[in-house]
Amino acid sequence: GAGVSQSPSNKVTEKGKDVELRCDPISGHTALYWYRQRLGQGLEFLIYFQGNSAPDKSGLPSDRFSAERTGESVSTLTIQRTQQEDSAVYLCASSSRGMKGNTEAFFGQGTRLTVV
Amino acid sequence: AQSVTQPDIHITVSEGASLELRCNYSYGATPYLFWYVQSPGQGLQLLLKYFSGDTLVQGIKGFEAEFKRSQSSFNLRKPSVHWSDAAEYFCAVGGGSYIPTFGRGTSLIVHP
Predict the structure, then answer these.
(1) Do residues B90 and B35 lie in contact, with contact meaning Cβ atoms separated by under 8 Å?
(2) Per-residue pLDDT tens over the stretch B48-87
(3) I need a surface site. Which of A101, B52, B90, B92 has the fewest CB within 10 A?
(4) What whole-number percentage of chain A has pLDDT above 70?
(5) How far is A111 from chain B (nearest CA, A)?
(6) Which of B98, B101, B102, B107 to mutate to test the interface with A (most CBs of A within 10 A)?
(7) Of A33, A106, A109, the CB nearest to B99
């Protein structure tokens, strides 16, 4: 597609349920990032995928969070046993691989997750 | 490790006034620097970026930013703010890793 697409745009879930968030990156972009943005906060890095390399999971806050990506296509972020503190906007971005840090990241519109 | 500080959480300006949003970074070598804007309910859109060369970079929507190595700063400026510029602005740094590091953001409020 023309841009990064995320679904759903909004998700309300009950505490303790599992949720799955989807990200469809720009075609041809080998790098994919997930960030979390809590209300009034900056962007918190969660996980980074690059091609078929092992993902950088250093930002995942707990073992309830996991993410997958098949090749250079769609990624899903799964949160198990959701807690109220998981309420946030989850942003996905993709970029073409370049030297460290020198490529622009293109962002989706985010998924607003509300845990009640 | 690289880091970014945006010291102002909120900035309020009148429409037509000039604007400067501050950004300080920490990184040992020459950084790659970005400014993004996030309008309500939207994702982040790149305003401008600095990789090398001229330290004054021009971006979209009339924004510019100046890289000052001696001050470790990359402040965003606009000579005359429009009401549609009200948004959240994020500074980001790259270079130390493939993962850009973002500041906490500055919320711009524009009064008519």
Answers:
(1) yes
(2) 999 888 999 999 999 999 999 999 999 999 999 999 999 9
(3) B52
(4) 97
(5) 10
(6) B98
(7) A33
